[in-house]
Each structure stands twice: as structure tokens, then as C-alpha cells.
Amino acid sequence: MSIEKDRPDKSGLASEDNVVSPVSLTTPSKWVKDEGPGSALALFPGNFTARLGRVTSVAGIWADLQMGESGTAASAEADGSEASKKDLPPTVEIDAAGDIVLDVTFETSISTLNKTRKAELAASKKAGTQPPDRSTLKSKVRVAYRVNLAALKTHSKYFSNLLSNSQFREAKLISDIHEKLAQLKIAATEADIQDLPWIPITDDDDATKAAGRENAMEDILNIIHQRPTKTSRGTMSYVTTLAIVADRFDCVAAVARVLNTELKFKWPLTSNKPLRSEDGRPTETEQVL
Question: What is the pTM for the complete model shown?
Fold first, then answer.
């Protein structure tokens, strides 16, 4: 794995109100993992936007973190307000004793939402069931996952690099908060969720063209933590989404094992015979996945 020397890692960690300045980072995937010629990452933009803004409510931690930092103060519009029980998003305890929180915002385009609604409506008509509630599909969904840092680093090269390499702000954030919790004689595994390091990640649908990716993310994190998946039987479209998200976070091996064993997913048969066009003529495209 290689890390670009020009990766920024020093700005925006201090503010006037014990708040970490939100810093948008467009991070090419090559900063996190190498891309081979056959990598699925070549199929979609290798970047994501990480917002460093979630903080802990443990008294004094952020005041201490400000000391010695040279970052600039956050603006009045900054969204990195101190985490409290009032503004916490829906949380999923992948590990009740987890020592960090992945604060993930899933952004879905209108075109993807419309496509998903049409597919769900068609499926409900075919099955003779009530159509799903349209309000359940949203363009922006934020979910916080309480997870175990060691498990992430063991099964995901992406998280291993991002959360342990000192050149990344996320790694420093975790180290600083865990150190301050230790000084307060609070074990991170026993701390309230709002007192843990919150690592914001934004995930868009450029690669998957799928809504409901928060469910795939939950299953992937369960797999990483060697826990049962929430989904007991995956459709082809869901498994495809699962595979793309797993590829982004570089944990394909762990996910593939579960797909082939516990979920017993049956891949459709493929053929190297050419597809035929609407007029019945053979094309140059083979019938392979």
C-alpha cells in the first residue's frame, strides 16, 4: 500500500468551542490501497469525502486537544458540533463494546431512488403484496455504527491503513481520544457511544447505483466482526451491492467466505455464447457476469 506524500494531515483540528473543524477530503483510493488492473475500483471514482467533525462530550478532552494544535478555528456554519444524545443519528451496535464509531452518511441520487421505487413497485405487483412505503427511501441517510477498531484493522486493509497510519487525521483522532479517556480512567469499551471517536465517512451511489446501502454496510461490518448477517438470503442485486461496497473497504475476502458458506448464495450460470440483439443477431458480447 502506498500513501501520497502530499496527503494533507495537519489542518483543522482546533476551534473556539471545543469543536473539531470539519474538513472535506477528496481521497483517491490509491492513498488507501493499490489498484490492480483487475480491481473493481477501476469501475468507479476512487474517492470519498470524509468530514472530521464529530467530537466527544467527555469534559475537557477537546479543550486539551486544542492545546498545541495550529489549526484554524471553525466557521459559524461548521457542522462539526459536539456530539450529544440529542443530535446522534440512528445507531447500530455491531459490537456493544466497540471502541470507535463509524458515522456514515449514505447519499443516493434521485435517478437511483426512482429506479429503486419502480423496481419495488413492480415486485410488489408481481407478488400481490402491498407496495412499500415511498418515504423509506431517502436521498441522504446517516447511520452510526459502533465497531471494534481491532476487528476493522484485521479484516479490512482500507480501515487498517486509514485508522492506524499517523499520516491520516482519523488515526490521530482515535489515538488522542483513547488517550484522554484513559487519563479519565474510562475504558473505551465501556464508554458511552457519544464519548468515543466518531469517524465520519460519506458514501455515494456512483458505483453501486443502489439505494439502501446502509443495510449492506451493516452486513459487511457484522461479517468483519464475525457476527451473523442481518440479511439471511441475498438477491443478485443485493449481493452485487455488497460486493462493490466490500471492494471499496477492501474486505472482499471476508465477505466472499460468508457468501459462499453461511449465506450459500448460488451464482447464476454463465455462458460464453454471444448475446443476441433484439433482431436475433449475435453480438460480440459474451453472456458472462
Answer: 0.65
